[in-house]
Amino acid sequence: MTLRSTVAIAIAAAGLALSTVTFADGPTAPNAGAAAPAGTYKVDPAHSGAFFEIGHMGGISRFMGRFNDIAGDLVVDAPEKSKINVTIKTDSVDTNHDGLNKHLKSPDFFNAVQFPNLTFTSTAIKLDNKGEGTVAGNLTLHGVTKPVTLKLKHIGAGKGMKGEQRVGYVATGSIKRTDFGMNYAVPGAATDEVDLRIGIEAIKQ
């Protein structure tokens, strides 16, 4: 079972005509979707999360889990200067079942002792004037680094309870766990393909 994590595969192109608006530009809807002011932001772990979904027993059902420890930062600027960096602790995998969590942390899957971090570092960000587009980058999982492209959506921007500037984005995509050396019981225990959803809320520094 595993991963959906960190991050992956392009859902790109099927007709998504992306413009060269900045990462800071978002949909023009009221507060939800307000443009994000340029600057450096730090991920708020209390309001961010990485979720994965995978087919169980060759695909007889869909199974979901999450990672509870997520950190990182964003640079909101012109496209060529914008960045997203995310680090997830593999030991924080949570399926709401202690036995399964233990197995996922073992060498059969994430091998959390040897590979404690799952990381994603962007290399290119594109958003259209509706705040929708893609983020391409390098995903490191299980000691393997591969390029991936995720669908990216700017959710909104606004002030927090203490007046701090906040922004929100969601990245979604799919990866194959075997591409990262996670070959255990494919597809008998869990399918190769893993769907990923990463929700980020970040605070301007």
From TrEMBL:
Residues annotated as domain Lipid/polyisoprenoid-binding YceI-like: 40-203
InterPro entries: Lipid/polyisoprenoid-bd_YceI (IPR007372), TTHA0802/YceI-like_sf (IPR036761)
Name the UniProt record assigns to this protein: YceI family protein
Signal peptide: 1-24
Keyword annotations from UniProtKB, A to Z: Signal
Alphabetized SUPFAM superfamilies for the sequence: YceI-like
Species whose genome carries this gene: Ramlibacter alkalitolerans
